[in-house]
């Protein structure tokens, strides 16, 4: 396997523009002859499907929800970054690029990140034109707030529902194309494998989740925009349905999986309240604009927060990182919370919590202003915890939230399988070892609206593609494999539920490959995961039949894939003998407990090749930094 990133030559500021000129075009009449499959209808998938159809391609779009509008992107709360510099506070494309490379702890590809920053400004124009109701100032201009890892205000938002509003925009664009007959939309269809013919991705095999029918779909190119794999940890802020099946099955067919161990822990989530829980709730990073994070100065202080005087509180982020304060990046804020709790200064049941306190902001701005900015988030918090955050501080704790790793893609967003493109959270591209808040929506929409429409044309125009359809023997073969796997799952009829095994896997991952990792723990996890996988295949009980709506079967297929991906994640974490961003190896830290990179040995993206029946093979894409110089990150 060869990793050819295909980054264009020339100055970073003009790479994308020149590349767009140099890429081949498909003429408008010929576009009609091509079919592109888009799996996923979140921000990345919906924007790609709508844009490709608008260009004239025939598009088949798939999602597993009952409507594309219910993709997980709908959950995004806080906002989307763009270097518009509306605040006149010193922002620029270069600054957004710089912040993102630094925020990712120098483990992202510079050229991709620069392009992302460049395209960020177009995204806002596109969404405003669609009618996305971004928050506005009194005078009508778009409002901004700040997110972690930045000293400027560049985050555009629609109260605490930014993802929902952006998705409605993309969904309308998609539905317009459905109405025009350019997109055929298949909801409630789960992709279970990709089909390769002559080494190229030529289609997918799906299961109709209502009837159980296994079907083949042929195309000239395939785009996966299937989201992240955070649910490998069982408890996460992701929607319960989020899974890795599409990218994992593609990985097993030859797509390299890059940096699987780069997972993001979000510092501000509602702490888990017990073993019954199946999901965690995020409290948006936007709250750190006005909320102050603190713990009692003294370990074991069990007084109510209002009884702890100012001089007995530790606003630890403001103390440790005065220039960024409560807006330090997520990896740093999460580890600082963990340290405070490990020291016995955590609050709430089990001592696994820190305060996020709005008392000062309410005093300074008034409750109405706070309600205006964060009303729906406060209401959500109160409904879940029965505490009123206008009166008492929120209690928060870090939780798994996002995955920076994903399928390796080149500059054109193509994986190591020709024709298989990967967009949004499903690819590994732009966030390095730690994603900055409000940058996922930006990346998904940049990929879908502004990158893939050009790069897929180049692929189609420069590749010889034989005509194929679903009757090709390769489709029949993959359909049979998919059917056999389903039969196997249904035939086990063991004693354990899918959930119980998933929960056990999640705990193993959180304990050994979560916020802090070390060689011993990772080796333990690597020994236990195969045992758990064996237990699954021998003793899981998948109820019901294939020919019906069967959530137990859906979950089983996804957990089977998580049980394989988990092993690769731990292996990647073990081999990366350094700390960077969200990957914190306890053996590699500065005297102040910060992540200690080893640029001499690990300044690369690790891309793993699946080898059937054997240990996966690691390839390296060396990363070079010409514009943001490699330094120890500091937010002090
Ligand atoms: C609670 C929460 C809040 C967030 N807030 C923000 C924020 O404020 N700002 C920000 O920038 N980011 C935020 N993020 C991150 C961001 O929401 C996601 O990274 C982003 O929305 C992912 O978009 P996507 O299009 O790549 O994938 P998704 O939105 O996850 O969509 C995946 C799509 O793929 C489909 N799919 C998946 N597998 C299959 C399959 N096998 N077959 C068929 N279809 C399949 C699904 O049906 C779905 O349509 C937040 C994340 C969470 C969890």
Compile the SSE list and pairings:
Blueprint: H1 15-22, H2 28-31, E1 35-39, H3 43-55, E2 58-62, E3 80-81, H4 93-103, H5 110-130, E4 155-156, H6 162-179, E5 183-186, E6 189-197, E7 200-208, E8 214-218, E9 221-224, H7 245-252, E10 257-258, E11 263-269, E12 292-296, E13 313-314, H8 316-320, H9 330-342, E14 354-357, H10 359-365, H11 367-385, E15 394-403, E16 406-407, E17 420-422, H12 440-462, H13 473-492, H14 498-513, H15 519-539, H16 551-575, H17 599-602, E18 604-609, E19 617-622
Parallel strand pairs: 1-2, 1-9, 2-5, 9-17
Antiparallel strand pairs: 3-4, 6-7, 7-8, 10-16, 10-18, 11-15, 12-13, 12-14, 14-15, 18-19
């Amino acid at each position: 396997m060869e990793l050819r990133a295909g980054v264009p030559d020339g100055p970073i500021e003009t790479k994308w523009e020149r590349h767009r000129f140099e890429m081949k075009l498909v003429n408008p009449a010929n576009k009609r002859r091509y079919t592109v499959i888009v799996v996923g209808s979140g921000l990345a998938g919906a924007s790609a499907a709508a844009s490709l159809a608008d260009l004239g391609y025939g598009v088949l779009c798939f999602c597993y929800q009952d409507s594309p509008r219910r993709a997980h992107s709908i959950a995004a709360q806080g906002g989307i970054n763009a270097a518009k510099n509306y605040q006149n506070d010193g922002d620029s494309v270069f600054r957004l690029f710089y912040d993102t490379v630094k925020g990712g702890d120098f483990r992202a590809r510079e050229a991709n990140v620069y392009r992302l920053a460049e395209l960020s400004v177009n995204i806002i124009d596109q969404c405003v034109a669609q009618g996305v109701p971004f928050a506005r100032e009194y005078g009508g201009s778009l409002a901004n707030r700040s997110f972690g890892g930045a000293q400027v205000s560049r985050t555009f938002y629609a109260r605490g529902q930014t993802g929902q509003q952006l998705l409605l925009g993309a969904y309308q664009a998609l539905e317009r194309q459905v109405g025009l007959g350019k997109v055929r939309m298949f909801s409630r269809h789960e992709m279970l494998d990709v089909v390769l013919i002559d080494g190229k991705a030529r289609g997918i095999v799906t299961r109709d989740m209502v009837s159980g029918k296994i079907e083949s779909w042929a195309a000239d190119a395939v785009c996966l925009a299937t989201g992240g794999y955070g649910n490998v940890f069982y408890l996460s802020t992701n929607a319960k349905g989020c899974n890795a099946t599409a990218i994992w099955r593609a990985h097993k067919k030859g797509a390299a999986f890059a940096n699987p161990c780069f997972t993001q822990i979000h510092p501000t989530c509602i702490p888990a309240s017990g073993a019954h829980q199946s999901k965690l709730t995020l409290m948006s990073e936007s709250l750190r604009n006005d909320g102050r994070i603190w713990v009692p100065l003294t370990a074991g202080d069990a007084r109510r927060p209002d009884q702890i005087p100012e001089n007995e509180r530790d606003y630890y982020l403001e103390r440790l990182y005065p220039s960024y304060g409560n807006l330090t990046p997520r990896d740093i804020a999460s580890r600082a919370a963990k340290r405070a709790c490990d020291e016995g200064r955590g609050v709430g049941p089990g001592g696994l919590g820190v305060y996020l306190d709005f008392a000062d902001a309410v005093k300074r701005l008034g409750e109405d202003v706070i309600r205006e900015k964060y009303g729906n988030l406060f209401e959500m918090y109160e409904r879940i915890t029965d505490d009123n955050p206008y009166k008492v501080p929120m209690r928060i704790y870090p939780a798994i939230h996002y995955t920076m790793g994903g399928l390796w893609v080149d500059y054109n967003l193509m994986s190591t399988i020709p024709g298989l493109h990967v967009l949004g959270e499903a690819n590994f591209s732009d966030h390095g070892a730690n994603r900055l808040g409000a940058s996922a929506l930006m990346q998904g929409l940049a990929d879908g609206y502004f990158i893939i429409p050009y790069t897929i044309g180049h692929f189609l125009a420069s590749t010889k593609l034989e005509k194929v359809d679903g009757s090709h023997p390769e489709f029949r073969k993959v359909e049979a494999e998919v059917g056999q796997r389903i039969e196997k799952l249904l035939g086990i009829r063991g004693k354990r539920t899918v959930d119980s095994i998933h929960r056990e896997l999640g705990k193993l991952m959180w304990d050994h490959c979560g916020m802090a990792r070390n060689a011993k723990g990772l080796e333990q996890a690597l020994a236990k995961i195969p045992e758990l996988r064996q237990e699954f295949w021998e003793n899981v009980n998948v109820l019901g039949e294939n020919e019906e709506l069967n959530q137990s079967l859906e979950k089983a297929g996804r957990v089977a894939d998580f049980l394989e991906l988990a092993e690769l994640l731990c292996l990647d974490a073990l081999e990366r003998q350094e700390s960077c961003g969200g990957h914190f190896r306890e053996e590699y830290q500065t005297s102040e407990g910060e992540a200690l990179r080893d640029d001499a040995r690990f300044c690369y993206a690790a891309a793993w090749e699946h080898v059937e029946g054997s240990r996966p093979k690691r390839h390296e894409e060396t990363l070079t930094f010409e514009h943001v110089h490699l330094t120890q990150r500091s937010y002090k």
